[in-house]
Structure formats: structure tokens, C-alpha cells
């Protein structure tokens, strides 16, 4: 099989999903009718999609969608593909703010908008904002959040003062892949996804310290900063506990494999 020869991790699954995408059907429809003959137009579309996958373009970019928190999120070049691990960030925010009426929350580095989409769906009373530096990513988040009337999107970064203050929470999935880890990634990530959303460079905690400074100004007393962690950051748990003098360590959240996945601080 061509996909296996190209080094694709799950060639049979990908082939089925690519065919389903070309036909405009779901996976079940394709598997239920293996005898179906493709039209010339369908065949050409399927071959074009297969060619992209053989070049190791992410399957999600080719299909144009990735599920997150049970919701379809539209994705493409310039946008970080949502990962299941990031659902721990959503779960933690919902848990900690469940007793807060109309919470004000800001996500830094909105990307596809998947986190805000999940939060807006479960907390329609919340006042949500997303800050994104990259224009391409901001277009994807605007597309995914177009129907969410309680979400405000802003272009900006951590170099500027927070445009919002007195927040109940700041959430973020900062760049957490070190330069050494970057070289070991599969081509789908390394060659196609936006490196600015993934790479932290040689200093694993640098983006987190910048985020802590920013959040210390944006949060109200008692407000929370929640960040997703990578492997390099989880190994520096002691440094995370004293990330910023204005923030007190509150808790860490582990994933199903026992890895520290989300760090949470509270503004003093």
C-alpha cells in the first residue's frame, strides 16, 4: 500500500477516511458499500487527496476538520490541529469555574478556536475572549467561532499589555516543544503545522514566564491561570511552582497516562 510505503502510521484508517472525504460520506458509509464504483470526478478527487497524504500533509488538513470535545473544528494550513490532550485544559477550566456566575475568561494563543468553542458551548453565560498573534490562525478561529455571540477575538501577543483586565481566568496552550524534541517529530507536524504555535526553543519555560507576567496583570485577585504542559515543562515541576511572584501554585492535572498535563496558578 502506498501510504504504508510513505511511512504513514495508520495507512488503512487514513485510506478509508480519505475515500470518505472524497465521496462526501462518513467512514461507515464507505465500509458498508465496498462494491461501489467511483465516478471519474470522485476518483480524481480521491487521488488528489491521496497525493497530499503521501507527501505527509496532515490528514486533518486534507479533510478540513478535526473533532475536539465532541465538536467539529475546521482546520487547515496556518492553524494548529486540536489534540485530545488539550481537552484536559477545557475540563479543568469548566470544573474550576462551575460556581462562578458569568465568568470572564481569556485564551492566549487561540489558534483554531477549539478551546473557546468548547467553553462557549458549555458556558453560554461566560464572557470569553481569544488573543491570537498570527493572522492565518485568527482567520480559522473566526471561522470556528462565528456562531458564538459571547466570544470576542483580538489580534495581539504577550509583548503588549493585556487589553482585558479583572479576569476570572486565563487559559493557554503555549508553545512547549523544545528544539531537541522538534527534530524528533513526525513530518506531519514538523513540516506542516505552524512552528510558532509549537516551538519554545531551548528554554522550556520561557513562554510560560511571559504568560505568567501577562496573566498577573490581566487577572483579578483569586483569578486563575491554566496552562497545558509538554514533557519538558512537566519535568520542571519545581520551577513551575514559583513561576511568578504574583501567582501561587494551586494544582497540577494529570492525564490518563499519569503525565502532568495542566498547571494551574492563582493570583495572590
Question: Could you characterize the architecture of this molecule?
Answer:
Strand 4 (127-132), helix 8 (135-144) and strand 5 form a beta-alpha-beta unit. The protein starts with a helix and ends with a strand. A 7-stranded mixed sheet has the order 5-4-3-6-9-11-10, with helices on both faces. A two-stranded antiparallel sheet has the order 1-2. It has helices spanning 2-5, 11-23, 27-32, 40-54, 59-63, 87-96, 114-122, 135-144, 179-182, 187-190, 206-218, 231-234, 237-241; strands at residues 65-68, 71-74, 104-108, 127-132, 151-155, 167-172, 177-178, 199-201, 219-228, 247-254, 260-267. The chain has 2 domains: 2-55, no CATH class; 65-267, Vaccinia Virus protein VP39 (Rossmann fold, 3-Layer(aba) Sandwich), CATH 3.40.50.150. Helix 2 (11-23) packs antiparallel against helix 4 and helix 6 packs parallel to helix 7. It is built from 13 helices and 11 strands.
Silhouette: globular
Q: What is the class of the largest domain in the CATH system?
A: Alpha Beta
Instruction: Summarize the main sheet.
Output: 7 strands, mixed
* Count of discrete domains: 2
Oligomer: single chain
Measure the end-to-end span. 58 Å
Strands of the widest sheet, in order across it, are 5-4-3-6-9-11-10
Low-confidence stretches: none
CATH architecture of the largest domain: 3-Layer(aba) Sandwich
CATH superfamily of the largest domain: Vaccinia Virus protein VP39
Number of DSSP-assigned strands = 11
CATH fold descriptor of the largest domain:
Rossmann fold
| Strand percentage | 15-25%
Q: What is the CA-based Rg, rounded?
A: 20 Å
- What average pLDDT do the residues reach? 95
Query: Would you list the SSEs in sequence order as H and E?
Result: HHHHHEEHEHEHEEEHHEHEHHEE
How large is the count of helical segments? 13
Q: What share of the residues lie within helices?
A: 25-40%
Which structural category do the helix and sheet elements fall into? Answer: alpha/beta
Amino acid at each position: 500500500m502506498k501510504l504504508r510505503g510513505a511511512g504513514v502510521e495508520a495507512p488503512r484508517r487514513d485510506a478509508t477516511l480519505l475515500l470518505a472525504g472524497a465521496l462526501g460520506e462518513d467512514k461507515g458509509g464507505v465500509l458498508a458499500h465496498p462494491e461501489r464504483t467511483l465516478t471519474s470526478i470522485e476518483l480524481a478527487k480521491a487521488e488528489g487527496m491521496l497525493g497530499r497524504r503521501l507527501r505527509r500533509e496532515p490528514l486533518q488538513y486534507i479533510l478540513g476538520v478535526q473533532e475536539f470535545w465532541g465538536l467539529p473544528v475546521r482546520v487547515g494550513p496556518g492553524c494548529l490541529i486540536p489534540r485530545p490532550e488539550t481537552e484536559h485544559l477545557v475540563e479543568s477550566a469548566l470544573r474550576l469555574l462551575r460556581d462562578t456566575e458569568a465568568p470572564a475568561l481569556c485564551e492566549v494563543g487561540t489558534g483554531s478556536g477549539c478551546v473557546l468553542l468548547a467553553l462557549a458551548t458549555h458556558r453560554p453565560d461566560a464572557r470569553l475572549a481569544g488573543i491570537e498573534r498570527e493572522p492565518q490562525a485568527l482567520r480559522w478561529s473566526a471561522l470556528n467561532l462565528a456562531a458564538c455571540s459571547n466570544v470576542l477575538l483580538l489580534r495581539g501577543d504577550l509583548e503588549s499589555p493585556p487589553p482585558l483586565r479583572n479576569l476570572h481566568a486565563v487559559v493557554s496552550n503555549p508553545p512547549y516543544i523544545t528544539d531537541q524534541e522538534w527534530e524528533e517529530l513526525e513530518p506531519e507536524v514538523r513540516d506542516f503545522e505552524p512552528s510558532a504555535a509549537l516551538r519554545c526553543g531551548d528554554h522550556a519555560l520561557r513562554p510560560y514566564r511571559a504568560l505568567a507576567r501577562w496573566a498577573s496583570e490581566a487577572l483579578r485577585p483569586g483569578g486563575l491561570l491554566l496552562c497545558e504542559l509538554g514533557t519538558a515543562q512537566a519535568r520542571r515541576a519545581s520551577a513551575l511552582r514559583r513561576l511568578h511572584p504574583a501567582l501561587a501554585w494551586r494544582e497540577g492535572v494529570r492525564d490518563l497516562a499519569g503525565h502532568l498535563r495542566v498547571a494551574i496558578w492563582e493570583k495572590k
